[in-house]
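step 4 of 6: structure.
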Amino acid sequence: MPIKTIFQGTTERMEILDHEGNLDEALMPDLSEDRIRELYRNMNLMRAFDDKAIKLQRQGRMGTWAPTLGQEAAQAGLAMALKKEDWLAPTFRESGVMLLSGVPAVNIYAYWKGDEKGSLLPEGVNCLPPSVPIASQMVHAAGIGMALKKKGMKAAAVGFGGDGATSEGDFHEALNFAAVFKAQTLFYIQNNQWAISVPVKMQTASATLAQKALAYGMPGLQVDGNDVFAVYRASREALESIRNGGGPRLIEAVTFRLQNHTTADDQSRYRTPESVDYWRQRDPVKRLREFLITRKMWDDAREAALQSELSAIVEGWVTELEARPAPDPADMVRFMYKEMPWYLKEQEAVLMKEAGQ
Amino acid sequence: MTAQAQKAVESETKKLTLVQAVQDALRTEMELDERVLVLGEDVGIDGGVFRATEGLLDRFGPERIMDTPLAESGIVGVSIGLAVAGFRPVAEIQFMGFLYPALNQLFAHASRFRNRSRGRYPVPMVIRTPYGGGIHPPEHHSESYESLLINTPGIKVVVPSTPYDTKGLLISAIRDDDPVVFMESEKIYRAFREEVPVEAYTVPLGKLKVAREGKDVTLIAWGAMTRIAIESAEFLAADGISAEVLDLRTLNPLDLDPLLESVRKTGRAVIVHEAPRNAGFGAEIAALIQERLLLDLLAPVQRVTGFDCVFPFPMTEEQYLPSRSRVIQAVKRTLEY
């Protein structure tokens, strides 16, 4: 009996606006000029928000921060495709998409400054606190996606991860559970090519991260993560299908982390400035700005006005952040359980006494 | 239904084993609360390897009784997601020795969500897991590592020792708004039957039970070791020694006041657990007793525990587990001090 092929999978890549300014008109999503300028504004807002946090950290006014520089298209494009009913299960590098999907900026800053209250979000914002153990939050997104399906809700859960996350067992368990139970979950992998010091080539022998979805029986798509139109189109199509019960999907957005892993990291230990420069030339914000200028949708005056507007907004957030009352130390024991057991009440009393309360 | 008939139903009982009480608790609570889901390996058509979920698939269907892929981290992780999104998942981890792959989800997330979100995202979930030695299984089927869980803030730990308590405590655990690990002793799953009310009822979490009253020494135990403590007390009674037996039932939060009250009365305490001794929960209980009752003690607090070794293969497990004779010797040490 001849050996037969029993499975053949293919993995596609979507690009709409390349870094030389070539546009695939057929794939270009239907976006008004205002919507495109809104995307551009969102990407710049994310960048200003990130840049300010790094400066604050250098001045001792912020804790360790995980920069998002270079990943603006990958996050702003997705954010525009999200709806209020959708859920986010972010990692620590999702400050941009969180900001752009309703998490108050001051909450994000407060979290990174070191106040747990930053993760106490307003009702109606369906976003879990950022998860630090890599890939673990993707399983929560699978569970939330199962819950949305059970409740018959037209909403999706987004489980975030980076290239490094795809090596963790929880990545595989999350994809497998989501596929088996047809969860309403999008797995959104930002392949920024570096897990701290380890490049993606050392992370996996697979040609792409998107193809890993095939093994679990779900569609996987690679997009140019620095092309905001491709990110938006792919995200919107995936989310619409997921919300309508089409099962989970995976998107790999290929991008690049232009900054250190965190403000505590020194990228010069593991990569050359030239390798970063290659990607700086593929800056997603620059790519969209050139698109807008070429099509007479943008000019220097608008740019200057935008930058000064954003800078004022971010300064306002910093003022708000620094006006927040310091956290009450005794709060550390107050939220472990719905009701404090006797021993936490004893410990609360110690903290309160030390704080002179 | 007439009031009289209603009363008859309410007072109706069935004679159940501990594992049947688990099933009865799940069935009863699932009838009352449609948010309750059961998930785990083999919990569906097989009814669980110990039959703790027998018949539930037929009654509630695959949307509520979910046979999952074989992945413990996934089971606990998706349970967190289900809980955050409004369900009350009861996950079965087939044996406590298989909980290790899920400890990241349990320790890094389930226990912390409420605190991390300052109350916005509680995780009302139960992890049921058979634990402990005595049924001659292969390796990894006899673990009893409650102290790891107790040392992790944010998790409640419950260990019933009777069918009645099992049903009432499991219903309380499901209704609780915090994550609960519910440890079910494999050894006593079918050891004896007890009258268990047919309807739903609760036994409160965080409350110990005086399983036997006495005045000379306090034996402190939980789960299968409660049986050993009670049997030891019966032997001691023949020698004229009156032992009080406390069944802790909930390990976290520990019901400290009645425990101290008992030791204050007897002046002697012997703690019995099958987990290893090093940093076991017995050490914490002994420390609490000496911190608060030093001058009431007539003898040093004694511990009868498993050895500080890997739980042995079946041919020597009887020698590993705390026995009546070891408990009786420990009691005599406190009396002869």
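step 5 of 6: annotate
 - Chain A has 13 helices and eight strands.
 - The first strand of chain A starts at residue 12 and ends at 14.
step 6 of 6: archive
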